[in-house]
Amino acid sequence: MHMGDVVPRPVLVRYATVILPGVACAACGSTDQSPPADSGGPDQSVLDATADSSTGVDGSLVDSGSVDSGVPLDAPDAAPCNRADIPDGACVVTLAAGQSAPAGLAIDSLYVYWTSAQPDGGVLRVPIGGGAITTLASGQAAPLSLAVDSTSVYWANSAGATVMKAPLDGGPATLVMATSASPQYLAIDATSVYVTTSDGHVLSAPIDGVTDGGAPVVLASGQQQPGPLVLDDAGVYWTNYAGSSSVVVAPKAGVPEGGAPIVLAENENQPYAIALDATHVYWVAVGSESVRVAPKTGVPEGGSPTILAMIQGTPGGLAVDSASVTFTLNVGAGGVLAVPLDGGSPVTLVSGQGYPNAVAVDATHVFWTDYAENGSVMQVAR
After folding, report:
1. Which domains, ranges and CATH numbers included, belong to the chain?
2. How far apart (Å, rounded) are the C-alpha atoms in residues 18 and 330?
3. Per-block mean pLDDT, blocks of 10 residues, the chain (382 long)
4. Helix (H) or strand (E) holding 251
5. Contact at 8 Å (CB) between 327 and 316?
6. CA distance linking residue 307 with residue 207, whole number of Å
């Protein structure tokens, strides 16, 4: 997500958009959505988390190692610091103001990338810490989620039934794959692009795009409103917001004929944003207003996922590092919070936000999009 001289960039993946299905957004201009019904999820006690806080973060979400912070906050072209509404007085930076429906979010070591999810939308970036905004692609059909590697940025055109890519150093956008229905959420690894679609498919295509006359590979079908997806070396993980409200995984080669994805947790009351570390899968449950975790091997028979945090409001985006889970509240309180991997009371990093949506973290900062017609891309020190 991450024109001019080529700047070497380590591969850091990035977080997909998490505009909740059917969730109203008072700040989102023409977005016409109504709140989802509360499906009433199970009444569970908050348990001790089993995540190992010493384990590293899976590369498909965030690199928790040393990160170049890009433009220093005291540089002449850095964005101004706003300390309002920050409990510990930390510096909050508006990286990009006046943005039209900023949705998906991704970072590398130098830049923050986002999509403008309008019918005539685009893909943009700004240096970490603030600076000039660059448009990497324009004229896109409501681009939602995006991802970045060391050479290109990739995004899903939700109104155009296409997944696209463009060089980080300038050049035209090219087709990665066409889909039969709206592509929603996207993730990448070194060889492939993966996407969920509005008609219940999970697809993959070579990272350089399908060949002429080719088609994406169907990894799974019949999914019930599949949401954001994340990767590890072996599998593709995603949430099914509707139906059985499940968290599932499938091999990167796809579900065997006649088979189905492996269910890691079900009856999760509208699971949505998802993240991984080396041993566990994390997600937000919109219906039960909670942040939850289970081993990658799934919830033991007769058991339940661990609840890391119960929250007052609708959770949105989610990111994880070696110490904590960071998430947004995008209906209600409007903030960015974090909870330790072993559970506890969430710490409010930022409050008083409009509709904080997608979130990403590096070693020193938290980044998020405020999804609105007159939205913004934000940063705060950790």
Report:
1. 81-381 (2.120.10.30)
2. 10
3. 29 40 36 30 27 27 30 43 58 92 96 96 96 97 97 97 96 96 97 98 97 92 97 97 96 93 96 97 96 96 93 92 94 85 91 91 95 87 85
4. strand 247-251
5. yes
6. 36
